[in-house]
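*** Residues and shapes ***
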Amino acid sequence: MTQELIVTTEGPIGRIRLNRPKAIHALTTAMCDGVLDALERWRTDDGVRVIAIDHAEGRGFCAGGDIRMLADSGAKDGVEARRFFHTEYRMNHRLFTYAKDIVAFMDGITMGGGVGISQPCRYRVATENTRLAMPETGIGLFPDVGGGWYLSRLPGRIGQYLALTGARIDGAECFALGLATHYLPASALEEAKARLAEHGVLDELAVEPPAAAILDRRGDIDRLFASDRLEDVFAALADDDTDFARDTLATLRTKSPQTMKVSLKLLKDGAGMASFADEMKQEYAVGARVVQRHDFLEGVRAVIVDKDNAPKWDPATPEGVSDHVIDQIFAPLPEAEAWTPHD
C-alpha cells in the first residue's frame, strides 16, 4: 500500500509530503494524524528549525478532504465524519499555533482541506500553477477548516464572494489578497525546498507576480455582496445589468441555498472570533450537523458519485431556508461532544 504521507527529516528541515496523487492528495484521517504526530515530534527537537509541507507527484497540492467517506458516514451515524473533522481541525489549529516556521508550497490545485493545511502556515508559497478555491457550497458543504476565519479577513467582501461562488483564484491573486506570502515560479520550487533552512531564501527566489485580476472586480464584488442576507445578494445580482452579475447569479443558482446561508453566517461570526480555537469549535459543531443533512448527501451524489451535476437542493431557494434551521445548525454542541484543541 502506498504511503499516503511521507515524513522525513533532512538536517534542520522537517518535511511533510502529501502522497495520494490519484486523489490529488485529498486528506484522510490517518494523514491528519500523521501530520499531528510529526509536528509533535519536531516541537521538542532542537535540530529541526523549519518545516516544509508539499505534495508528491501530480497536478495539485491538495484537493480537499475525503468527501466520499464523509458522505458515506453522514448517511449513517456520522461518527467517522466527526472523527475526521475533529482530527483535521486539530491539525489546522496546531499548524496555526506552532512555534517553528512552517512553509506550505501551494503549487497547483489547493482547495478545501488544502486551504486548511496551507493557510495556518507562517509562509505560504504560490506559483503560476496555483488554483485556490473553497468550492464547498457546490456539494452542500461550507468553507470549513478555518474558512470562517481566513475569508472574513480578506479585503472588502471578497471572502463572501469566494465562499458563495467557489470561484478559483490564481497564484497572483492569492499573493495580492495575502493568502500567499510569496510568489515563486514553479521552476524555482526545488531550489527553494533544498535551501529552505537559509534565512531569506523565499524572498531571494520570489518574483513579481502578474496583475491580480480579482482586484479589478473589487468594486463590483463589494457592492453586490455587501449584505450578509443571501436574499439581498441574489436581489443585487438580479438588478445589476452586467455580464459579471449575470454570470455570478447563474453560478449561485447551482449552489446549495442552505450552505450558502451557513457560509455567510460563518464569515460574519468568524470576523469577530476571539481566537482560532473558537473558530474551529464553531466550525466543528456546524460540520457535524451539515454532513448529515440532505444537501450534502445530495451534493456528493450529483457531483462526485453520479456526476450528473444536477443536485436537487432542499430547500431549493434562499427564501426556503429559515433562520430557525440556520440557528439549529450553529447551536453549540454539548461540552462532552465539542471540539477541543490538541493537548
